[in-house]
Amino acid sequence: MKIRVTPQQEKAPSTPVDLGKGKVKKPSYGRPLELFREGDIFVHPRGLTVTNGLCSLFATSFHEANPLYLNQEYAKTLGHSTCPASPQLVFNIVLSLGVQNDSEKAMANLGYYDATFLRPVYPGDTLRSLTKVMERKDRGAGKPGIVTLRTIGLNHRDELVLQYDRKIMVAPAGNVPDIGKDVASKATVALAFPERTETAIEIPEPKRAPRNLTGTKTWFDDFAVGDVIVSANGRTITDEHVAWTYRVGNTHPLHYDRVYSKGLSGPMSGEPIVYGGLVFAWLEGVSSRDTTENAIATLGFTEGYHTQPAFSGDTVYAINRVVDVQPIAKPAAKTTPADLRKMSGGEVVAEGPLEAGVVTFQLIGVKNVTGADALSKYGEALFQKEVDKKNHKIAEKVFEIERRVLVRTRGG
Questions:
Q1: 3-state secondary structure 229-286
Q2: Which domains does the chain have, with CATH numbers?
Q3: Is 9 exposed, middle or buried (0-12, 13-18, 19+ CB in 10 A)?
Q4: Cα(398)–Cα(318) distance, rounded to whole angstroms?
Q5: Which residues, including other chains, have CB under 8 Å from residue 192's CB and lie 6 or more apart?
Q6: Is the peptide bond prior to 337 cis by the omega test (within 30 degrees of 0)?
Q7: Coil vs helix vs strand at 119
Q8: Contact 45, 128 (CB under 8 A)
Q9: Do the beta carbons of residue 351 and residue 359 sit within 8 Å?
Q10: Model-level pTM?
Q11: How far apart are CA 128 and CA 131, in angstroms?
């Protein structure tokens, strides 16, 4: 197709400036509390195609040590055609694609719950996300309310790759300036929302991977309930976080617009805040040599809370505590389908031979103090949920979450 055009002529000087009513448009994104209705489904814009370059850049920028995400030949020994995308990259894309609809007007992200990675994502896959409003709790006239959202991520074959819930705090329209009568992102109803009906995780059949490419103390056999693993190295966050915010699709100005962030009141006022998903990824990354170097897959996470904001210039450190270890159970005689790894009733069941077990880590993140110093200063209080504390909260603690990982045994 050809489109024939004439040479472009200057038009602005001869076009009258009209600032009258209805002529000046100020698009608005996100939703005030009143526009969250239980059962509504939001289809998020754009989508994002995962590339080899993005996968590699994310894995190296966020200190991933598992060769599954770095070494294509190693990944092939675990049954993959190439290196899959880091689960942290998948999570950050799926969440970020929904910010324009879900949380661009949110006052706070309150927590992540029941996240499950259901199948790998590979370079060339295109991700999109949808969100369902599960619950809205009003707290009185003029007060912000709590909205519970369920978000799913789909690939371009409409296969479910990720599902999680999160809670956000949202102000009603009376507390949001210039909201107007129209909101750019409107709720879409009567749409398919293919959320999971059972927790069945699909992974390729692993082969015997090389044993000289990973550490010697991160096999399933090395972890016992109660172990506390203090990672030595931290990560200083620079202004790179601004570029990463939109690289994964996050549109909230709190993370990249200094005029916006300084115009806020209260504790959020000041320099742009580092998008929390990136903080989570850096904490996982700096501790991956000590915890997940021999992981086959990340199964999911829950009870995740950003307890303090992080800013450019902060250095974050990670501490992991083992809170559960679970060997893979032998499959029942009639367990189906054969290509799924099933988790039910607290027991992990794999079809076919799988030399691995599930380790649940409680991940704690602190800033501007080493993990060792934080542990020495606060002891067991470091592992108590900040959300449950009325007093004596830890100012240096920035994040807490529980995550489940499928880890190879020494014989695997």
A1: EECCCCEECCCHHHHHHHHCCCCCHHHCCHHHHHCCCHHHCCCCECCHHHHHHHHHHH
A2: 27-50+85-197 (3.10.129.10)
A3: exposed
A4: 10
A5: none
A6: yes
A7: coil
A8: no
A9: no
A10: 0.91
A11: 11
- State percent of the chain over pLDDT 90: 78
Query: DSSP letters along 129-157, please?
Result: EEEEEEEEE--STTS-EEEEEEEEEE-TT
The 8-class DSSP code of residue 8 comes to P
Pairwise CA distance, residues 103 & 170, whole Å? 8
Q: Is the pLDDT of residue 392 over 50?
A: yes
* Distance separating alpha carbons of residues 410 and 390, to the nearest angstrom: 44
Q: Give the DSSP H or E segment for 374.
A: helix 371-378
Digit-coded pLDDT (tens) for 151-175: 999 999 999 999 999 999 999 987 4
Tokens, residue 281 = 């990824």
Instruction: Please tell me whether residue 346 adopts helix, strand or coil conformation.
Output: coil
- Residue 184 pLDDT level (bands cut at 50, 70, 90): very low
The torsion defined by the Cα of 59, 87, 152 and 344, in degrees rounded to 10, comes to 180
| DSSP letter for each residue of 39-84 | T-EEEPSS-EE--HHHHHHHHHHTT---GGGT-HHHHHHTT-SSPP
Q: Two tokens at 112?
A: 């992540």
Cβ atoms within 10 Å of 87's Cβ, excluding its own = 26
- The Cα 121–Cα 68 span in angstroms is 13
Using CA atoms, how far apart are residues 382 and 374, in angstroms rounded to an integer? Answer: 8
Conformational region of residue 282, where left means phi above 0, alpha means psi within -120 to 50, and beta covers everything else: alpha
Q: Could you tell me the CA-to-CA distances from 350 to 78, 328, 336, 369 in Å, in that order?
A: 15, 7, 10, 41
Using CA atoms in the order 92, 97, 102, 108, what is the torsion angle rounded to 10 degrees? Answer: 30
Element (H, E) at 107: strand 106-117
Q: What is the mean pLDDT of residues 171-199?
A: 61
